[in-house]
Amino acid sequence: MPFSFPKLYPILDSSIIPSTDRAEFLHRLGSELAAAGVTLLEYRNKTGSDAEILFDAAALRAALLAPNIKLILDDRADLVDQMQFDGVHVDAEDIAPTEARRLLGPSRIVGTFGGSDAFLPGILDVPADYLAVGPVYATTTKQTSTPPIGPDGVRRLRDEAGLERILTAAGGVTLATAPAVLAAGATTVAVSAAIFRTPDPAAEFRIWLKELG
């Protein structure tokens, strides 16, 4: 795939978006993130209506309209075309990665959950561009009962996956722990609260980029 995954994969959860002036907030945030150097962003909305998701998507797409910036939608492969997004992330409770690939075609990005302490059976054979692994550390952003795997778990999964597979490490990663997670074999670290629940997400993103190199 021609797109090169960055070391930092921010996930924008809809819970941080205010109910008023929603479009203005998203356009400002998106523009600031684009200026800060974001090349990959996931939008996650677990509870909103189709209308809300499409509304948010239009604001983000308008602010992040550049060939080098890819927008990923969480869960809803059926809305990716309407949103003019670049791909989807699907988990075990969503449609299968094979179905997402069928819907979106070969050129869009499809990601899925790969496993925690071990890969899910057969997951290395699915037509996904990347596999999310974790939680690496304890997280409050996404509910899970799976114990954290730590950098050692990431290293075991990298050894099993081989060098070419794109692994996205998620769950409780902070600026202090991200270098160790990348050194353990993660291609990229997925971060939500550590960036978007700060006073200035774009400035925080710049700090992460500088630290991760």
**Relative strand content:** 15-25%
Discrete helix count = 8
Q: Give the CATH H-level superfamily.
A: Aldolase class I
Number of individual domains: 1
Physical arrangement of strands within the biggest beta sheet? 1-2-3-4-5-6-7-8
How is this structure best described in words?
With 213 residues, the protein is an alpha/beta fold. The chain has a single domain (8-212), classed as Aldolase class I (TIM Barrel, Alpha-Beta Barrel), CATH 3.20.20. 35% of the residues lie in helices and 18% in strands. The protein contains 8 helices and 8 strands, in the order βαβαβαβαββαβαβαα. It is globular, with a radius of gyration of 16 Å. The chain starts with 7 loop residues before the first strand and ends with a helix. The model has no long low-confidence stretch (mean pLDDT 95).
Structure in a nutshell:
By secondary structure, the chain is an alpha/beta fold. Helix content is about 35%, strand content about 20%.
Features:
213 residues; alpha/beta; TIM Barrel
Q: Secondary-structure map with pairings?
A:
Blueprint: E1 8-13, H1 22-36, E2 40-44, H2 50-63, E3 70-74, H3 80-83, E4 87-90, H4 97-104, E5 109-115, E6 130-133, H5 150-161, E7 167-170, H6 178-183, E8 188-191, H7 193-196, H8 201-212
Parallel strand pairs: 1-2, 1-8, 2-3, 3-4, 4-5, 5-6, 6-7, 7-8
